[in-house]
Amino acid sequence: MTQMKKVVVIGGTGLIGSKAVKMLQDAGHEAVVASSRNGINAYTGEGLEDTVTGADAVIDVSNMMSFDKDALVDFFATSSRNLTGAEQTAGVRHHVVLSIVNADGLAANPYMAGKLAQEETVAASSQAYTIVRATQFHEFLETLAGAYATDGKVKVPDIDFQPIAAADVAGALVAVALGEPKNGTIDLAGPGRGSFESFVRTYLEAKGDHSPVSSDAAVDYFGAPVVTGSLVPGGDYIEGRITIAEWLQA
Q: Domain 6-249's class?
């Protein structure tokens, strides 16, 4: 029988965090929902010491929505510094953070720059850790399609895409957190790879939207120049189970 563990989920009320909390609880573990909503703030440090005391692992899926590179870098780096410091003091075994596949190659994008700062801060700490880099989520396809839409047409970068369901991301984070620290990165991607254009078209058509969708090599990814493999793993990775078709049906 698996020994029950205490796992703190920073950002435990969000898309990924709430799913991870439920998975941990369903498996009989103690999942602590850590959010600014309940007085636990990784950026300010509020409530961290008491929250991580006695924890076996911490999963950090905290987030900040902004287009300001400096603000994002400050948020992710400061939060990670506070977290890993509190974890070391408390003797937490494993720090797990969710990042994005190839974040280091896309740092011209403000959000990617923030995630890269988060990765570097965690790796530079003395805390045992694993960084899980995921591809874009199925759940973000609506936002992505809207961002690239102009005058009823959608033009996206001419690149490969391999989206993954949020449930698969949460499951991978839980499995990693309950395992041994890698002190490195793990890539995570969905079960199907194709063109960005094809995934956006599939999503829109499933929603009854028949807007023309095309691709253009000159189009960037929210400020970051991209090549074919910029948003997909270049080597080994953990593969999710839920296909885009299954996700759309659900």
A: alpha beta
